[in-house]
Amino acid sequence: MTETVTIDAAGLHYTPLNQMIRSAVAAGAKEIVLNNVNGHRFIGNGLRGTDVRLIINGVPGGDLGMFMSGPTCIVHANAEHAPGNTMDAGTIYIHGNAGDAVAHSMRGGEVYVKGDIGYRGGIHMKEYREKKPVLVVGGHARAFLGEYMAGGLLIILGIGKTCPVDERGIGTGIHGGEIYIRGDVPDRHLGIGATKKPFGADERERIRPYIEKYCMEFGITDSSLFEDEYVRIGPASARPFAGKYTWE
Amino acid sequence: MPIGSTPPKFRVRIDQDQCMLCEQCIENCPYGTFRREGNRILVNSRACTGCHRCIAMCPRDAIDLEEKPVAYRSHPIWTREAREAIFNQAKTGKIVLAGMGNVLDVPPIFDRLLLDACQVTNPSIDPLREPMELRTYIGKKPSRVEVTTKPDGDIELLTRLAPNLRCETPIMIGHMSYGAISLNAQLSLARGAAAQGTFMGTGEGGLHKRLYPYQDHMIVQVASGRFGVDIDYLERGAAIEIKIGQGAKPGIGGHLPGEKVDESVSGTRMIPVSSDAISPAPHHDIYSIEDLAQLVRGLKEATEWKKPVFVKIAAVHNVAAIASGIARSSADAVVIDGFRGGTGAAPRVFRDHVGIPIEAAVAAVDEKLRKHGVRNEVSVIASGGIRDSADVTKAIALGADAVYIGTAALISLGCRVCGNCYRGLCPWGIATQRPDLTARLDPDIMWENVSNLINGWTLEIAELMGAAGINSIESLRGNRDRLRGYMLDENLMNVLDVKTVGAGA
């Protein structure tokens, strides 16, 4: 088995495609190039291997890298909904836009989207011990960004946008983690339980490595990404609904 | 104006002549009902939850506990419960949480369904000497099978069979998470289920390492919070269950408060210590049957189509149409949880007023799936208020393949259904994480209770089947002719598709 394996996905159902990927990884392939990907769902689902790279030429369907634990996926196109869904470890780079629920419930690993994402981005992301999920979006995000977020980092760079998140429900029910949005968002867009917090030098340094990684992967040279002000949004309380209930 | 305190619900008395001041009652009551002053044990009845632990552990039978008669003016409509709920909310302005199952005084439909037995004209079957087939396979079945005959005469099956769970009894244990119940309770249930060749659910709290020895008998749950869910967890389970809804609280999510998330629960759920574990009402990647199908297939794809995937929903008004959609989603089984289903904590108003009984839901689902020609494509598991082997038998006759039990399994561990699970102080070591309380439940002993319960019910089902002239659980499934409705209205009997008592074959 050579280090690189190329698979033509044209006309293939997602199950045999994933079987071919798994077989290649089991045989020792370190790089798998998928050509003619056209809406194939579940690519890399549950795939393990920290030293494995999937190069995806075409548009992957929903749930790219779901439950994935280790590999790196590079998508040279847009991606459908929920890339990184409940991902455990690994990295996904999307050289285009992505659909709804990007990084849904992600527990570890990183997702980088060059362009825009849809609704519910980073929803219910959570962290555990050394695992801290990160979602970096170059463009804008739609409503319900970071809802119920329980950990991790969500960074919206808003490149070319006047308001990177111009819709409501940002961080509704957030009880862990942080959302960084370049520039500012109106207070009325914040969801219940979300609050703006100070953005200082420490916070700027915290997000710097991820912005650097974004720039490096997508070939962006824009120093303003590092110098501009960001609005930092976090939980107003670690127990957002604790006061809602009483005993029988 | 202050409302003042409400009367105690229980009256606890100690027979001072019997009491030998051993202080077992003080030690056993985490609610602080007892204290010692000099040579007397004094009682604060107001603290009592009726958990019965003190009575069970008193070596001299010196404790007497009774529900205290209502001190309010009696009224048929404004019951004590109704008035005290208003007092509570008038004081707090909050949602009232409650534990265990529905407490409304409405008769279980199961009690108004009667089973058949053979007499004279058709022989009953003697389970003492005849084989009774209770083994149940949960999962997809092919509509037809194709075979070929090989040159050597062997028959080869060409149809690819979907993975099924092989249960030696139609009784499984439903999902009660680590966090909601203790690890010792889960270990007892898991070992008991494994001993009987059946399965139990993990709930949405992940799979603790100590349960790994029983993983082949565990169904791992994926709920909206996705707690403890990673590829390793999915691969360990014998099956995977997507939890959409729960009978005790249809339409809303779950919430394990941060104070219950200790180091061990945190490790299993994979969230920080003391962090709230919030399962939102919907899965954020499911907003339609198509989305559900996507998650079902996503889970199958991640586990290489080796695991059956169940979908659990609460029994609601439109349950049959929803189940029909689930049957087409690639799911292998639909789990229906009726409005008597238990819970660690639910808003009281949901627990008691939302959803429909499991009896009607199972009958409606079975009929709809048959009408749509997809009943064979999916198994049906009934849960929510299954109290004995008669309920199991009736549920299967109404159309279920198998049942989940929850509260019944906890009762086999000592639970007295006091309904205070949400307080985290369960004196029986079940619905608590407090080490001194969980230590009261020894899984190396208590698993036998669970195993015995399932075994006893299974024997009874075999006897009931034999009496009805049935020797295979498959012949009982959906066999409404083995049921008759007694004191049920005509409309309900139409939904159940059963005849009235007195009607012949």
What would you say this structure looks like, in words?
The complex is a heterodimer of chains A (248) and B (505). Chain A has 248 residues and is of the alpha/beta class. Chain A contains three helices and twelve strands; from the N terminus they run βαβββββββββααββ. Chain A has helices at residues 14-26, 201-218, 224-227; strands at 4-8, 31-38, 53-59, 69-75, 89-94, 110-113, 134-137, 150-156, 176-182, 194-197, 230-235, 245-247. With 505 residues, chain B is an alpha/beta fold. In chain B, α4 packs across α14 and α8 (319-327) crosses α10.
Helices and strands in order:
The complex is a heterodimer of chains A (248) and B (505).
Chain A: E1 4-8, H1 14-26, E2 31-38, E3 53-59, E4 69-75, E5 89-94, E6 110-113, E7 134-137, E8 150-156, E9 176-182, E10 194-197, H2 201-218, H3 224-227, E11 230-235, E12 245-247
Parallel strand pairs in A: 1-2, 2-3, 3-4, 4-5, 5-6, 6-7, 7-8, 8-9
Antiparallel strand pairs in A: 9-11, 10-11
Chain B: E1 10-14, H1 24-28, E2 34-37, E3 40-43, H2 53-57, E4 63-67, H3 80-92, E5 95-98, E6 113-115, E7 136-138, E8 147-149, E9 155-157, E10 165-167, E11 171-175, H4 183-195, E12 200-201, E13 218-222, H5 231-236, E14 239-243, E15 254-256, H6 263-269, E16 277-279, H7 289-302, E17 309-314, H8 319-327, E18 333-337, E19 346-347, H9 348-353, H10 358-371, E20 379-383, H11 389-397, E21 402-405, H12 407-412, H13 435-438, H14 443-467, H15 473-476, E22 483-485, H16 490-496, E23 499-500
Parallel strand pairs in B: 11-12, 11-21, 12-13, 13-14, 14-17, 17-18, 18-20, 20-21, 22-23
Antiparallel strand pairs in B: 1-4, 2-3, 5-19, 6-22, 7-10, 8-9, 15-16
Helix pairs in contact in B: 4-14, 8-10, 11-14
Element string of chain A (H = helix, E = strand)? EHEEEEEEEEEHHEE
**Order of strands, widest sheet of chain B:** 11-12-13-14-17-18-20-21
Number of helices of chain A: 3
Structural class of chain B: alpha/beta
Silhouette of chain B:
globular
In angstroms, what is the radius of gyration of chain A? 18 Å
Segments of chain A where pLDDT lies below 50 for 5+ residues? none
Beta-strand percentage range of chain A? 25-35%
Mean pLDDT figure of chain A: 95
Arithmetic mean of pLDDT of chain B: 95
Structural class of chain A: alpha/beta
Distance between the termini of chain A: 65 Å
